[in-house]
Design goal:
about 160 residues, alpha/beta, Rossmann fold, 4-stranded parallel β-sheet, two-stranded antiparallel ribbon, 5 helices, binds the ligand Nc1c(NC[C@H](O)[C@H](O)[C@H](O)CO)[nH]c(=O)[nH]c1=O, binds the ligand CC(=O)[C@@H](O)COP(=O)(O)O
Amino acid sequence: MATQLKNLSDFSNTEIPSAQPYRFGIVVAEWNAEITNALYHGAYQSLVNNGALPENISVYPVPGSFELTSGADLLLKKGGLDAVICLGCVIQGETRHFDFICDAVANGVSNVAIKYSKPVIFGVLTTDNQQQAIDRAGGKHGNKGDEAAITAIKMAHLAETLKS
Ligand SMILES: Nc1c(NC[C@H](O)[C@H](O)[C@H](O)CO)[nH]c(=O)[nH]c1=O
Ligand SMILES: CC(=O)[C@@H](O)COP(=O)(O)O
């Protein structure tokens, strides 16, 4: 379902577990910072609104979305987290660089999640232009950071239930 048909911040039809027991790491790309900062604020507020303790939320900037994978890997190697949220914004430029970054981050994030058996959330906008990014970072289509946070809570809860 396209984002145009499902607002990224609408979770009225879903049950969200309490985030209170969980510790979250958030890795944020500095490229397109006006967008990624909005994603971060959305993610942080969504975690707190669902019970996460501020002291259990840690944030780590990385230069670009390509570095989100290694940022998540370093965080999980360090330990002590129940989920990692990766936030970035990749906007198509003149060359095929966009394709390589998007593929690398999507595959990289998935591989890190499997490597550590921990939820690693792909909160990365991959857009044709700046306006599409604005629309998905608190604009008319909601905030991808909200979606990433709720996903992290649900996956951390699932991991906890399967562990016990
Ligand atoms: N063009 C975008 C980039 N490019 C930078 C890469 O992510 C990476 O930091 C660089 O290739 C060095 O390894 N990053 C974004 O997050 N968004 C872009 O639109
Ligand atoms: C996604 C990118 O790396 C891209 O924004 C860089 O722009 P260009 O493809 O014009 O070099």
